[in-house]
């Protein structure tokens, strides 16, 4: 019995129903009836649009602070990094708070406006 290295490959973890399109490429294809990664991302973005906004804000703050790293003057590196983290967290928390306020508005204010006679 001879061993052919071309036939041997690493085991591939797949969900039931998933398949590999091409053995050479190793591309993963979702099972029938499931969304692809991009479709799932777009659906989740439509469901909660402030999550990508918060993530974008965090990335923008981090990119700006990294860009301004050389112009920090006599500020210690640790202090600069702490300020960067706090600003990025403020974007994320702000997006979560806006999402919570919007959800409350949608659930309570719009619902009561649609059904004025009900209590």
UniProtKB/TrEMBL annotation:
Gene name tied to this protein: HIGD1B
Top-level taxon of the source organism: Eukaryota
BP GO terms, sorted: mitochondrial respirasome assembly
Pfam families assigned: HIG_1_N
Listed PANTHER family: HIG1 DOMAIN FAMILY MEMBER 1B (PTHR12297:SF9), HYPOXIA-INDUCBILE GENE 1 HIG1 -RELATED (PTHR12297)
Compartments, as annotated in UniProt: Mitochondrion membrane
Keywords, ordered alphabetically: Membrane, Transmembrane, Transmembrane helix
Species, as recorded: Ailuropoda melanoleuca (Giant panda)
Domain HIG1: 22-114
One annotated Gene Ontology cellular component of this protein: mitochondrial membrane
Protein name: HIG1 hypoxia inducible domain family member 1B
InterPro entries in the record: Hypoxia_induced_domain, RCF1
Record field: transmembrane: 50-67, 87-105
